[in-house]
UniProtKB/TrEMBL annotation:
Ca(2+) 2 binds at D199, G230. It comes from Corchorus olitorius. This is Peptidase M10, metallopeptidase. It is found in: Cell membrane. InterPro entries: M10A_MMP, MetalloPept_cat_dom_sf, Pept_M10_metallopeptidase, Pept_M10A, Peptidase_Metallo, Peptidoglycan-bd-like, PGBD-like_sf. Ca(2+) 3 binds at D216, G217, D236, E239. Its cofactor is Zn(2+); Ca(2+).
Amino acid sequence: MLEPTMSFGICTLKCTKGFACLLRFYYARFNQSQLPKHSKIFQTLEGCQKGQNVEGLFELKQYLKKLGYLNHVLDHNKFDDHLESAIKAYQINYQLNATGILDADTVKQMVKPRCGFSDLMINSNNFRYINGTGASHYEFFLGNLRWPHSKTHLTYIFRSSVEVPLEEDIRSVCMRAFERWAKVSRFTFEEVEDDDVADIEIGFHSGDHGDGNPFDGPQGTLAHASPPTGGKLHYDGDEYWSTDPGPDEIDLESVTVHEIGHLLGLQHSLEPGAVMYAYFDSGMMFMAFVPFMGYYDGKTLC
């Protein structure tokens, strides 16, 4: 939600800059009790290691499968060799101590808000380890997930299944985000009103919204986008979105720039601070924007 409207009887008080601090305090308190189910479960699993059988490990396996670290998940709570290997791969990729134990630092990383797209696209047990000096600011999807070479002008349309306040602000945020990518790619972008000609559909949704990747409420999966030529960018409508984020608010433009990268064919970077890094800090604006433009200056991506 963006700059919510609050009603008191017949009076409606619209949020202003002067009222922002009070609202941010309220939402910070509210959101702490609205963590996604998996985040609450993971916090109870701290210290778990191979050989244990603990309630909640099945949910952890599902999470790691979604991110690409497991090929399949058996319906049990046993901490087996496969789970240990998956946790080690996750720890290596996020520059954590690779013990295979679900330690405090690993849990802290896992419960952060993030993009819903996987870290790895695997069809075997060969994990993609990227850490240290080997990390990359950007990396293309495996295979031929590209827009046709002749396709250089992409059109987009807004279609949401939940109420979207301040629609004009959202439009301007998306326009700026597309302009950033236009400077470092071969693409130009244009909003259209006709579904039949739109290459990309952008919208806010809640929970299970029909694409097989349900959202989980505040502070979990923030958004997801499909690689070329899927053309879908979905935001979780239950997040507290902002264009000027305070504590426990999510910066809309930061997430938008990231998700457009997926639309253009880029997968996650494992370099902290990179535009394509999967995790986001609440209350922070993605001012990797300046190094982003500097890093890609003179390079044509996608």
